[in-house]
Amino acid sequence: MTYAAIILTGGKGERLGGVDKAALSYRDATLLDHVLSVVDDASQIIVVGPEKDLPGVIWTREDPPGGGPLAGLAAGLREVTAERVAVLAVDQPGLTRNTIARLREAGGNAVLKDDRTQWLIGMWNTAELRGALPEDPRDLPLRKTLQQLNPVEVSALPGEARDVDTPADLDTLHSG
């Protein structure tokens, strides 16, 4: 069964001094390139954030820009035609194709979990996700909306759920 992928890239990167996380260098490419490679088998790839020159990607933005991850998710979801959709953040260097495969195999709604639930690493039923969205998603917490869908928790492998939020995370990314 095919799936779509939404990659959220519109964060402000405040704890990293306002850096564009999508453009951060990772393994001779960028974090965005990495996440795109993990979902290259998706029937649609929708990137929510400032547009870059990348073929084969559907670009969209939340309105107004900066409305938070739930607003970004709503913007991306408007483009999805597949029955299932992966929702991912761009700052996830630990993601692999295996991560996506395990989330897909869980069936229904699924999220990755390590020491906490990783709401921005999940696979969702598109219709259920659309139904859970509030009318105005700006600045509302993503977690509260996604919790309503009672996702299966898929255990993360070591390092799989790490993200890049702070200068220390960035140092770890470049030394790893």
Automatic annotation (TrEMBL):
<dbReference type="InterPro" id="IPR025877">
    <property type="entry name" value="MobA-like_NTP_Trfase"/>
</dbReference>
<dbReference type="InterPro" id="IPR013482">
    <property type="entry name" value="Molybde_CF_guanTrfase"/>
</dbReference>
<keyword id="KW-0548">Nucleotidyltransferase</keyword>
<dbReference type="GO" id="GO:0016779">
    <property type="term" value="F:nucleotidyltransferase activity"/>
</dbReference>
<keyword id="KW-0479">Metal-binding</keyword>
<keyword id="KW-0963">Cytoplasm</keyword>
<feature type="region of interest" description="Disordered">
    <location>
        <begin position="153"/>
        <end position="176"/>
    </location>
</feature>
<keyword id="KW-0460">Magnesium</keyword>
<keyword id="KW-0808">Transferase</keyword>
<keyword id="KW-0547">Nucleotide-binding</keyword>
<dbReference type="InterPro" id="IPR029044">
    <property type="entry name" value="Nucleotide-diphossugar_trans"/>
</dbReference>
<keyword id="KW-0342">GTP-binding</keyword>
<dbReference type="Pfam" id="PF12804">
    <property type="entry name" value="NTP_transf_3"/>
</dbReference>
<protein>
    <submittedName>
        <fullName>Molybdenum cofactor guanylyltransferase</fullName>
    </submittedName>
</protein>
<feature type="domain" description="MobA-like NTP transferase">
    <location>
        <begin position="5"/>
        <end position="149"/>
    </location>
</feature>
<keyword id="KW-0501">Molybdenum cofactor biosynthesis</keyword>
